[in-house]
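User: Need the bound-state model for flavin mononucleotide:
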Amino acid sequence: MTEEQTLHEIFYCSVLAQDLPAHAVGAIVGQARARNAERNITGLLVFDGLRFCQHLEGPRDAVEALMRRIAQDPRHTDVRVVHEGPLETRRYSGFGMGLAESEGPDLMAGVHALEGEAALKHFLALRSSFDISG
Ligand SMILES: Cc1cc2nc3c(=O)[nH]c(=O)nc-3n(C[C@H](O)[C@H](O)[C@H](O)COP(=O)(O)O)c2cc1C
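Assistant: Bound-state model below.
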């Protein structure tokens, strides 16, 4: 794929809104896949039943605009951008938005406890342990 604009990545963590059932996540991802494909955004959303971590990548303007919408979404709280910056090559070119369910709370709690690039590195290292559906 030829990239027409500078690639950008954003990694954030958040917590499922209290009154929302965990199965609502399926609907979020279904819609996200269609919309991300239109905007050339790819990424991975990991959910452990309570916590989210999402890694977004794509053209800078599109990724920043999406992050602004996501930050206002009442379906989650405590949205915290942990790392963002320019990106050389995509990591998730295979899927518009992969979804992985993390088993047990420990892995994601570990990522949530970290800051900045350390959190992202930890997340990326965990990727191989996730069962990702694209
Ligand atoms: C955890 C989480 C992840 C989301 N990921 C995406 C995504 O990757 N792409 C997307 O278009 N919307 C995503 N959304 C939904 C957006 O917050 C928003 O509802 C959607 O972009 C539609 O916005 P609009 O109705 O203002 O156009 C996500 C929402 C949540 C709670």
